[in-house]
Batch of 2 targets.
Target 1
Amino acid sequence: MPGLGGRTSLPPERMTPVRVRGKRGQRARQRALREQRALQEQRAQHATNGQPAVVSPDSAVKPTSSKLECLPTEILESIFLYSQNFALPSVSLTLCRALASPHLKHLTLCSFLTVSDDESSNLGRIQSQLLRCRWMDLAMLRRAQKDHKLSTLRYGCEVPTKVLHGPWTNDKIEMLRLLKKLRAKLDWETSNNGEVADQSLKEAIIQGNAPMVDLLLNRWEPYPNIYTCIVPVTQEHLRLAILQGGCRRNIIDDILHAGRVQRDLPDLHLGDSDIVDWAIEKKAHGDERGSWLLDLVSAEGTCT
């Protein structure tokens, strides 16, 4: 039948429905937002009640093992030793459990820490990586020294960061002492270990931790007469020991001794004006530290 403008109108059953874009998508987005708000409210309610949020099993992500983790333990141990990648156990809990046997640790010590020859130029670097492992503690190092006749570490082996900072324990102090005896060095060029050790020395001076001060300073070893470098002592260390560290005699003696034997560094000056003023003030109040320090200044002829 004719319609407006002379056009013919189709009956309703023959009309093609027109899709209005966005309506169905909008409804889906609104439904997702409502579900998300409901889930957030549920979690907030559980948190308010002191209960953990409940996650449905369908939404939980199920962990999957990699092909490497599915290998037999014997093959994983061979890969660990051949690759020399001592960080491999930290990749996953599965690898950590598989590579934590005492047998593997024994093989690792024999293979890299207590070898009798030095065919590999990278052996010092490999030993440094081994010392950084969490399981390589004082007990393991002593075992290598006793059972495997470990007498020295290879050139380039570095002191690990874990023994260069607090909190200080007896094991940490003894491990640093043993590493120093085995000729491990401190890397000042390619890592921040030097800065860590220097900061630890300053903290030990202020806290009056005499054993750590002794270990971290430059010292001549009586045998085999090797100059072992840990942290070079400077005028700043001397000032800290006197002005902030309580002027403890044993620490002052260690600092002055290290300053006398170290090479290619400026001499220490007890005649520093702040040090002299501190000593004069303490002596005026009857503090024997002031008199003792002024006697040192006079004996060395550094008073200005």
Note: Residues 3-7 have pLDDT under 50 and may be disordered.
Target 2
Amino acid sequence: MHVGGAAEADAAYEEAFDAIFNLAVESYRHPIPQISKKNGQQKWSMIEMWPMTDPVTSTPAVLVFVHNITQQKQMEMQLAQRQEALQRENQDLEQNRIQMEMQTAAIKKEKEAFQQEALDLAQRLEAVIHDKFIPKSHIDADTPIDKTLNFLHAFVAVRTPTLPHTTHLLGHMVSSQS
């Protein structure tokens, strides 16, 4: 569609002539935008054309009817704007949904980490309670020979035995000989 003036009128005439007389359509419609001389607002007209035969001269003719379709075009433009706004809102909602899913996944992962940490702490607490409050057996199951072998093993491995360990071992060796 050409932008107004004589060029648009000539193009519309050629298009209408071709449709009516060459393509033999039943009717031809052509919307025309115009600027109102009164208030400068855009108005729309629909030109409808039907081929016919002139009853007086019996020559081909065209019956033309002009409709004001300004309100229809305004509604179509409003609908298009609302559809664009709706599409933008849908895109925003989709982005928000994706962000919420990512946040939910992060929260779930953090929750699992806290649950694992709580389990680890519970196990440690249980071990501490077990060590501190459950009575231990004071029975020394190692024989003097086991203790001597452990002492010699530590000595050979170049670990210096501690003084209390050495004293304790010597005390057992002395008492076992008596």
Note: The CA atoms of residues 114 and 120 lie 10 Å apart.
